Amino acid sequence: MIQLYNVYKTYEGNTPALFDISMIIKKGAFVFLSGPSGAGKSTLLKILFRWEKHDHGQVLVNGMNIGKFKESMLYLLRRNIGVVFQDYKLLPGKTIFENVAFALEITSNQPRRLIRSRAWEALKNVGLSHRKDAYPLQLSGGEQQRVAIARALVTEPKILLADEPTGNLDPDISQEILKLFEKANRVGTTVVFATHNQDMLASGNHSVITLNRGRIVDTRVLT
Ligand SMILES: Nc1ncnc2c1ncn2[C@@H]1O[C@H](COP(=O)(O)OP(=O)(O)OP(=O)(O)O)[C@@H](O)[C@H]1O
After folding, report:
1. Which residues form the ABC transporter domain (predicted)?
2. How far apart are CA 212 and CA 218, in angstroms?
3. Is the pLDDT of residue 171 over 80?
C-alpha cells in the first residue's frame, strides 16, 4: 500500500513539482499516472523510491514512513520495489542474463545456483530466455525493455514503478510491454505506471491519476 498525505516538492529555484498531493494506492492495484510533460509524474515516482525527498507531508510505503528514513535504511524500502525506465538502463558490458542475475546478486545472498535459476525464470517470463547470452545492444528496444522488466521483477518486489517505459517504443510493442506489467499485477504486484500515452491509458482497464503542474487534476479509480 502506498499512501501520500499533503505532499509537496519544489526543486531549487523552480515552481512546485508537486503541490499538496494526497492519494492512496491499494496493495495489488494497477494505477496509471498521467499528465503532460512537467506534470510531476517522475518526481512522484522518485519520491516513492526515495531518490528524491519530499519537502512536506507524509509518504508511507508498505506502512513505512519513508520521509524519515536515513540512507542506511533505504534498503528496507528498495528491496520491495522494482523500477523500469524509458531508457532501459541495462549494463552494456553484461549479457542480458548477467544483467538480470546481477539485480539478485546485489540484493540477496542466495546461492549462485538459485540466482541463476531465478534469473533464467525471469527471462523466460518475458519471452527472452533463448537470447540470454546476447548483450543489450544486440537487442531491439522492445526486447531491451523486456529485459529491464525481468530485472525489475526477478527480486519479486511488492511494488513495480515504471517511468514512461514505452516512451521509446512503437504502439504494438508498447502494448506487449503493457501486458507484461499486467501479468505482474495479476500475481499481486502493485504497479504504478507513468505515461502520457493516450492509447495506453485508454487500452487498460486501470485506475488513472492525472497530474498537471504538480497538482492532481483528475482521478479515475477502478475497484
Ligand atoms: N532535478 C530537477 N531540478 C530542477 N527541477 C526539476 C528537476 N526534476 C524535475 N524538475 C522540474 O519539476 C517539474 C516536474 O518534473 P517531472 O520530471 O516530475 O515531470 P514529468 O511529469 O515526469 O514530465 P515528463 O513527462 O516530461 O517526464 C518540472 O517543472 C521540472 O522542470
Report:
1. 2-223
2. 9
3. yes
Q: Find out whether 31 and 206 touch, Cβ atoms under 8 Å.
A: yes
Other CB atoms within 10 Å distance of the CB of residue 151: 27
- Counting atoms of ligand 1 from 1, which one is nearest the CA of 44? 18
State pTM to two decimals: 0.94
CA distance 208 to 131: 35
Q: Each residue of 15-33: pLDDT tens digit? A: 899 999 999 999 999 999 9
Residue where the block lists cell 482521478 = 219
With beta carbons less than 8 A apart as the criterion, state whether 18 and 8 touch.
yes
- Model pLDDT, residue 57: 97
Q: Is the CB of 35 under 6 A from ligand 1?
A: yes
The tens digit of pLDDT for each residue in 52-77 reads 999 999 999 999 999 989 999 999 99
Average pLDDT over residues 198-205: 83
> Would the CB of 40 count as within 6 Å of ligand 1?
yes
- Cβ(167) to ligand 1 under 6 A? no
Residue of 129, 139, 80, 77 lying closest to 100 (CA atoms): 129
DSSP state of 28: T
CB atoms inside a 10 Å sphere around CB 139: 18
